[in-house]
Request: fold
Amino acid sequence: MFEYPWTSLMKLLDEIADIGRDPVSGGYVRYAWTEPELALRDWFRDQATQRGLALEDDGNGNIFAWWGSGPDAVLTGSHLDSVPHGGAYDGPLGVVSALLAIDELRQRGVKPAKPIGIAVFAEEEGSRFGLACLGSRLLTGAVAPDQVDLQGVFEPVGRRQDILDRIGCFVELHIEQGRALQRPVGVASAIWPHGRWRLDFAGEPNHAGTTQMGDRRDPMLTFAFTVLAANKEARLRHAHATIGRVQVAPNATNAIPSSVRAWLDARAPSPEIVDELVEALRAKASERASRDGTTVTMTAESITPAIEFHIGLRDRLARLLDAPILPTGAGHDAGVLSAYVPTAMLFVRNPTGVSHSPLEYAADEDCEAGVTALADVLQDLTC
Ligand code: GLV
Ligand code: MN
Ligand code: MN
Reply:
């Protein structure tokens, strides 16, 4: 019986704990192709090199580290970028666990009959350029380079069929992001369909002190009504709607705004419910705008369809790990990959359910159970 150096998981997370951490919020600000995220990539390359893995950049911002070469590879991994002031686990847990799962397989003396790869996908959160899972979408061709504006920061090459051809399956490990998992490790069944819409409210800028209340065309009012309506329409349908980002012009205390721009994130168990929710909100916001003397437009920025993970792979992992199967409302690169290669996900328990927040947390023992589970899965799929 070998003794696995479990402290390594905490040590690896500790090594990157200060990278991109905001001292005030305690959360991570690790946007794609910014200094902290580039430092994390260097750290990953160094970790992969220490393990003798062969590094490959795909020209889309994604990094692969390979143990072995050739087709039918079993790919794992996740992402290192974050939402604004996000937690330590969303993304990095999957990358760190992948490195440690390889260590564990080696300690077990496993000689995989197929290559094993670790992927680090770029801009999974869409925090910098607005499109979530940008790296995996470019790799697979789900979006073409000319459909995205990376503002000259990076010039992607687009679909890499040669890499896709080498991937036999993909298994992403991720912290669970609700309170749906009561055991240390679970297996994903599906991702709710979801999307992002830009809302533009326009009115008449004017003086806060002198404009009669009845004379105002205040887009902030239409916006405020729309936020409440989004919440109500989502609750009515057992769906989720969030307006978490807003820009106001001119953003002055003593001026009625000329415009408000906000973003809606809407998710539901089925695409029909997402559509219904968005259309109901569009109607309510427009009706309110006509009463406020303002205008509102809603523009879809990205739509992600419902994802059903590969049933055979899902059931195989659930049997192997004796793990529960559960859906999620969170988006993942695994969702993008699933349209191209058999794909599954492992979730590690999140005791509070908090995520996309500095308070995101998973217990050390559960993270360790995640590494063991991932090692078991990689062994099962490659031997
Ligand atoms: C990614 O974490 C998302 O669900 O937005
Ligand atoms: Mn996330
Ligand atoms: Mn994530």
User: Anything to note?
Assistant: The domain at 6-192+306-382 is CATH 3.40.630.10 (Aminopeptidase). The chain has a mean pLDDT of 96. DSSP finds ten helices and 15 strands in the chain. Residues 134 and 266 are 19 Å apart (CA to CA).
